[in-house]
Amino acid sequence: MRLTKPTIMPHHPLVTESRDLCGDLISRLNDAEISRTPGLGAFPLGNLLTLPQNFGNIFLGETFSSYISVHNDSSQLCKEITLKADLQTGSQRLSLSSIGTQPIPELQPDHSIDDVIHHEVKELGTHILVCAVSYMLTSGERMQFRKFFKFQVLKPLDVKTKFYNAESDEVYLEAQIQNITPGPIYMEHVSLDPSQQYTSAELNAKDGKEGSHPVFGTLDCLSPSDTRQYLYCLTPRPEIYSDTRLLKGVTNIGKLDIVWKTSMGERGRLQTSQLQRVAPGYGDIRLTVESVPDTVALESSFDLVCKITNCCERTMDLTLVLQNVTSSPGLLWSGVSGRQLGKLPHNESLDIPLSLISVIPGLQTISGLRLTDNFLKRTYEHDEIAQVFVVSVDT
Known about the structure:
Blueprint: E1 7-10, H1 23-32, E2 45-50, E3 58-59, E4 63-71, E5 78-88, E6 93-95, E7 104-107, E8 112-120, E9 125-136, E10 142-154, E11 157-165, E12 171-179, E13 185-194, E14 198-202, E15 205-208, E16 211-214, E17 221-222, E18 227-236, H2 238-241, H3 244-249, E19 252-262, E20 267-271, E21 275-276, E22 285-291, E23 295-297, E24 301-310, E25 316-322, E26 331-333, E27 339-344, E28 349-358, E29 362-366, E30 369-373, E31 378-382, E32 386-391
Parallel strand pairs: 3-10, 23-32
Antiparallel strand pairs: 1-2, 4-8, 5-6, 5-7, 5-9, 9-10, 11-12, 12-18, 13-17, 13-19, 14-18, 15-16, 19-20, 19-21, 22-24, 24-28, 25-27, 25-30, 26-28, 29-32, 30-31
């Protein structure tokens, strides 16, 4: 017999008005209903518990509990009784019996041998509980029999992930978790266990006057078919930053650890496999913005620092060209164009200080930076590398 928690007895009231035909009779029947909550006649749930009438559903990550009883229905004494309970899955066979390997000396008539087994379900699909009993009659004859109990393990949650690679080498992970069980579940714990190359920060809380609070509230209930998004930021460890090849080759992000409870307090846990992201492609030259102001005054100059990294397998001889593009007329480059930057070896970086002048107010985009490799006569164009907000300052 499977051991499961009881459920709350539902109450289905038939609402009527006093002027309806048989309205008084239906009202009295509703008041006499045992599942009715006192003082809440139209509430759909009662204050009584209902024992399960069938095997019920078993979901991945939950704990399967079962009560096993071997009863001697005969009038004879049985000796050397052994009980084995094995769980056969699609990939393995597990022994679950808590009774020792030594046979039980005897079993009197009308007596039982009881055992309770527990197992955290970690595989989907068909499971078979195999119960094998062996005993000896008083005549010395050895008897044995087996019983099989088959059940299906269902999927409780549907987890989808999305990755966003930022220019700062940070990776943002969005995890969409959907409840596909027939009842509500309460998300007790959702966390990301990052791989060795990353550190993670959870972005699912908001700051208030009394500290940080979860964005989903203190009671994180997920109704059937509802979906919730969780966001995490992963930052590469310092030793990964120094080598571009290592940074490009890191595809393992980590694992999601999800813990929930059902409406009756039964606990479930699910851990995903190693999450994989598509490694970003930097090309031959990678350009990142090291520093840029958020807001600048109109008709004033401001400084910008860019970092250039040689990502190819050869040394490059670079020339910097600054172009004022017509698609971004609000900013003008200030400085020498066609400047020789010199040779940049493989996997080396170079910081370039630049200056611009703001001429039009509003949100402006920095574009028009060109790098030419003098060895191959190849030009690399970099547009929309950053944005600044230009404001008018009254004198």
